[in-house]
Amino acid sequence: MAAEPAEVRQEVVHGVETPSGKGRSTENFPVGSFLIRRDLRPHVHAFYRFARNADDIADNPALTAAEKVRRLDRMAAILDGAPGDESPAAAAMHESLAATRMTAQHCHDVLRAFRLDATKLRYHDWNDLMAYCRYSASPVGRQLLDLHGESRETWPASDALCSALQVLNHLQDCADDYRVLDRVYLPMTDLAAQGIGVETLAARTSCRRLRRVLDNMLDRTDALVADARGLAPQVVSSRLRWECAVIVELATRLLGRLRRGDPLADRVRLRRSDFMAAFVVGGLRGLRG
User: Fold this and answer.
1) Which helix (H) or strand (E) holds 280?
2) Superfamily name with CATH number, domain 122-289
3) What is the DSSP letter of 84?
4) Cβ contacts of residue 98 below 8 Å, gap of 6+?
C-alpha cells in the first residue's frame, strides 16, 4: 500500500513508526466491526494497528531499505517485550498477546512480509507472489480465527481469502506502487508473456497487453475467492461466520470492479453500495452457513 511522500516525511523522526494517515476506514474490508465480539474488538484493532504501522514503514519512500528493516526489527523486539517506547503499536500488541495468551507468530509473519517489501521489488511468477502472501496476508485471517478459538482446519480457506484480498489490493495500487516505490507485484513471467515490461505501469491508461496480464491475475484470484467460499460454513462463531461471508462478498465485488475498471487511469474502489449489499448478502449466506 503505497503512501505519498508528503504524508510520511512529517513523522519520520519520531520513534520508529511513520504513520501515513491511513486507517481502518480506508480498507476494502471491515476491521473489528460490530460483528466481532465486543471483548475481542480491542485485540483485533491492536493487531490491525500493529500491521498498519509496520506496513507504513515498508511503504515509506523517504526511508532506505536498510532503515526500513532496522525499524521493523525494532518493532519485533518491542513486540517480544524489549523495553522502549519507539513503537506504541508494537507495545500495545505485546500487551494484547499477553492478555489473550496468543502466540506472537502471526505478528512476526507479517513483519517478515514487510521486510520483503523493503528489499524485494519484483516477483518472478504467481507462485512467488503466493509465497509472499503467505506472510503478508494469511496471518491476518489466522490471527482473527485464533482469537475466536476456531479450528485450524479453517486456515486453508482463510488463506485463500486473505491472499485474494492482497492481490486485489496490489492491482488497485499497481500504478502508485511502481511510480512511488518502484515495487511491482505483477509477476515478471506474466508481463514477459505479453511482451511488455514494468515501465508499462508508468502509462496513464492500460494497454491491451497489460489488460491481459491484469485479467489473468483476476482469473487466478477468482479461483482463490471460490476456495474462500468454504470458509464461512466452517466457522463456529455465528458473528464471525457472518463477517467472513461479508468479506468474501466484498472480494467478489471488488474483483468485478477491477475487471471493468483501469487501475492505471484511476484507483478502482468499492462503493458504499457495495458495502451495504455485502452486509446483506453476506449475512444471508452466513446464516445459512
Assistant:
1) helix 272-288
2) Farnesyl Diphosphate Synthase (1.10.600.10)
3) -
4) none
Evaluate whether 123 touches 129 at the Cβ level (below 8 Å). yes
Q: What is the mean pLDDT of residues 117-141?
A: 98
Handedness of CA 168, 171, 176, 178 (dihedral sign): positive
Q: What count of other Cβ atoms lies within 10 Å of the Cβ of residue 204?
A: 9
- What's the grid cell of residue 153? 482446519
Tens digits of per-residue pLDDT, 234-273? Answer: 999 999 999 999 999 999 999 999 999 999 999 999 988 8
Q: Do 20 and 59 contact (CB within 8 A), yes or no?
A: yes
Q: What angle do CA 165, 168, 174 make, to 5 degrees?
A: 140
Calculate the alpha carbon distances from 71 to 67, 107, 276 in Å: 6, 15, 38
pLDDT digits 0-9 by tens, 163-209: 999 999 999 999 999 999 999 999 999 999 999 999 999 999 999 99
Task: Looking at 2-64, list the stretches that DSSP marks H as alpha helix, in order from N- to C-terminal side.
Answer: 5-8, 41-58
Residue 195 burial by Cβ neighbours in a 10 Å radius (0-12, 13-18, 19+): exposed
Residues in the chain: 289
